[in-house]
Design goal:
Keywords (chains A, B, C): Cell membrane, Membrane, Transmembrane, Transmembrane helix
Helix content of chain A: over 70%
Strand content of chain A: under 5%
Oligomer: homotrimer
Number of helices of chain A: 8
Largest sheet of chain A: none
Number of domains of chain A: 1
Membrane topology (chains A, B, C): Multi-pass membrane protein
Radius of gyration of chain A: 16 Å
Largest interface: A-B, 36 and 37 residues
Order of helices and strands of chain A: HHHHHHHH
Protein name (chains A, B, C): Membrane protein
Shape of chain A: globular
Subcellular location (chains A, B, C): Cell membrane
Main location (chains A, B, C): membrane
Structural class of chain A: mainly alpha
């Protein structure tokens, strides 16, 4: 657990910042920012832990409350313009995605789930917080944005994490390497507007 | 379980198709379609299993991942026009509703819940996936559409399933019969625009 | 449990009324009103119980189904104009908030969670139902409304409940007192439009 909690807390922080930034753009107040940051940072992990039948880390370990508080205060103090909020939101979201697809998968594997289920749960953890953020702020989730690619990096990261964990190669170095791959892929997909084929080949309305 | 898993998988498939069709109409890409299909097909059952305290079938049995994949591919290959998406969405949604109100109730009963709670959980399973679908796609849920009747067929189906299960009459034949009743009721309500009284007798925005 | 169930049922009723009123304003039908009332009244408590790993009270005790039914019928019979729906929605929502921040915290404490986690879970219970209500009805949650203060009264109420429970002073009198404080604070914040600082000091767009 001790080796796992730091990247998990970092992931909570990154997602919390993305939530607080969206709160800023939507004109929420500081408390709304703290709550949206908490929901985004902790939501995916709470869903994961509820699914595997554990008391969620957010409710058993008070340490998990620190990153959202820090995120809300940082966003409050550092942003006095909302010009670049959109860009930073994507960057912090990508960083959270990169860490959570790994920590979510590893937690599921260490809990005894099979690799396929663990990858699925890792992806759920990674995309869950951002999905909640966008649903609660009443906009179509980034996850379903067809202008770029969001879920594929998380799926690849979760699969690599499962492979390296099962093979016994997962350590701080390889974990960091996987996170960098996921983060870079996501940012590149956003920047260059890589996209997947549409759900139906020709749609209208 | 073996007798129960086939209708459950079929229900997952039907709901997944409804999710993929909505993804098509909203202009999501193929991955978004797969994810929305998975959320709709598996969401209700995951909620049900989390509530009764079991590891959700979607995460313990990889077979549950097949229907959403199949649904996304079918929708991708078969639809080259979105003209009739609305109609098919209602039909597949009704088919999922018809199966899940039965399988959800039976799973709750076989887990030892009392009949009232089991009916409630069956209805939750049946309407949960579609509710998630519409919330995530940022539209008012079909469940709350006052132009026709959505929940009543599911409540009737869950009650009939609980009655026949408790009475020992539930088998493939009676189960299929209940599903046909629910499906026909829902489709008729949609087609003929049967509706219930409004929540307040006279409303004004 | 017996001392706890009455305020809990009352809280369910108050939140259910707020859901049925919103259903009325949105033009939902009577069944949609019952379902939205149930979701709002029972949703926060179901989330709480799932997080602490218990079968939710709503599914184990059929008594919990009475308040939403009563709420839907009352709203149906008593409102023949929607003029004042907005005002009453806020009042009933505040009453539910006042009771749930206490009962949620006490349930978590009596289940053995630490005080910080219990306060967090109490707040989750209190704001969860209303959050679901607004998300499902496709509007930005009252929780994130920056025109007044919503979460702070719940946080204060949960903290006071945790303090008095731990100190052994919690009884019907002090519990009622805390609820009155929370309710009055929330209503005053709404009426006088007290508000917190914004999430970012200067926002645009």
């Amino acid at each position: 657990m001790s080796i796992e909690i730091l990247p998990d807390l970092l992931g909570v922080f990154f997602f919390a910042v993305s939530g607080c930034l969206l709160a800023g753009r939507k004109g929420f107040d500081l408390i709304g920012s703290l709550l949206l940051g908490s929901l985004v940072g902790l939501g995916g992990g709470v869903a994961r832990d509820v699914i595997i039948g554990q008391t969620p880390a957010a409710f058993s370990n008070p340490l998990y409350l620190a990153p959202p508080v820090l995120a809300a205060l940082l966003v409050f103090w550092l942003y006095n313009s909302a010009e670049k909020i959109g860009r930073w939101l994507v960057v912090f979201d990508a960083a959270g995605l990169a860490l959570f697809c790994i920590t979510g998968t590893v937690k599921a594997l260490s809990f005894g789930l099979n690799p396929v289920a663990s990858v699925l749960l890792g992806v759920t953890t990674a995309v869950g917080g951002g999905l909640l953020r966008d649903v609660v702020a009443n906009q179509v989730p980034q996850l379903f944005n067809s202008h770029d690619i969001y879920a594929i990096p998380a799926i690849i990261g979760a699969a690599l994490a499962a492979l390296s964990y099962t093979g016994g190669w997962l350590n701080i170095g390889t974990g960091f390497g996987i996170a960098v791959v996921v983060f870079s892929f996501r940012i590149a997909a956003w920047h260059f507007r890589w996209h997947a084929p549409l759900a139906v080949r020709k749609q209208k309305n």
